[in-house]
Give the backbone structure.
Amino acid sequence: LHLVALNFPFSGDMRADFQCFQQAQLAGLTSTYRAFLSSHLQDLATVVRKTDRYHLPVVNLKGETLFTNWESIFDGNGGQFNIHVPIYSFDGRNVMTDSSWPQKVIWHGSTVNGIRLVSNYCETWHTADAGAMGQASPLKTGKLLDQKVYSCNNQFIVLCIENSFVS
C-alpha cells in the first residue's frame, strides 16, 4: 500500500479525499487513494480495506518500506517509522527536504490508535479558522501519529494512502 503526500500543503479546510483521488489519477496511479485523516464518517484506522490491513507493507512512492503493514501504524507507539525512508509527493518530491512544505508536519485528526478526535480535526476538515484546532504530527519525531494540537490555519502536509491494493 503506497503512502504518498499531496503535492502542496493544506490548511484545515481541504477536500482531501478528492485531492488524493485527483492527484493519484494525474500521476497515472490506478488504485484508489484516500486521505490519511480521521473524518466525521470514519476513523483513520479503518480507511484501508480489512482484507489489506495485515499482509501488505506500507511503502513510499518508490516502493521503500515505511511500515510492515497498515495495522502496525496503530499499535499505540504513534506510528513510528524510519525517518531515513523518504515520504514522496505524487509529483515525486521528498516532503522531508523540499521547501514546498516549510512545516514538516502532517495533519491526521486521530489518537495514536487511529480513532477520530472530534475536538481536533478542524471541524471535519472544513475550516482554516485560527480558533479551530487539528491534531497533527511533526515528522521529525519519526511518528505519523504524534499527538500535537495546532491551529487549523497552519499549512501542513496531507498524506494519502492507497486504500485497496490492485495488482
Remarks:
- The helical segments are 16-26, 122-125.
- The longest strand covers residues 133-138.
- The radius of gyration is 14 Å.
- The chain has one domain: 1-166.
